[in-house]
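Project channel, design review

CF: Before we commit to the Hydrogenobacter sp constructs, I'd like one complete example in the thread so the newer folks can see what an input/output pair looks like. Taking Type III pantothenate kinase.
RD: sounds good, go ahead.
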Amino acid sequence: MKVLTLDVGNTSVDVCLYEGELRYIGKFEHDKVPYIEADLVLVSSVKPSAEAYIRERYPKAKFIRARDVPLEVAFEGKEKVGVDRLLNLYGAISFYSKDMVVVSAGTALVVDLAIDGIFQGGFITLGLGSGLECLSKKAELIPKIDLRSVRVSLGRNTEEALLGGFINQARAFISKCLKSWQEDYKRSLKLIITGGDGWLFEDLGVYDPLLIHRSLLALSSHSSPL
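CF: and here is what came back for Type III pantothenate kinase:
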């Protein structure tokens, strides 16, 4: 059975195809997603304005909503949580641990906590690429810089200062959340990292770039009516 999984994010669409094993197809603009023959098409979307095109391309696509994700939450308003966050947590709990932190690094930097397999909550802040873009637009003398890894103890030029500043800020944010939650809940937490910019933090924990796609597949197996 061929299963196509689409992760419709704020800036692009990631596409994977499952045929016995999961294969990454590529990243596409919202209105340039190719048609790929499949028996089942599963979609995670956080960009409603892009959904009409996806539906036109794949009329039988199943859009996964918050209510479709069998994840228990410790607060009210599950239906208002981004389905990408719920899917990442559902997958991470299924594949790794019931006590863990999921970091999703993309347009936004999201850090979420699960204890005993229950979503406790988390934080959302500006993603690294978004932060760099925002600063270059607001400050005339700040150039537009493409996100890349830089490991310096001190920035010696504008590019090093910007990249090092944003990356170190994000790493400190992730580490602080992990440390604080481990102290609060008095247990060791596994750190799972995903998202388009997750490679910048892969040394901090388990890096799973296709987590949301694997989660969609797991969900389709868990709930056959999909």
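RD: helpful, thanks. Residues 54 and 87 are 19 Å apart (CA to CA).
CF: The two ends are 14 Å apart (CA to CA).
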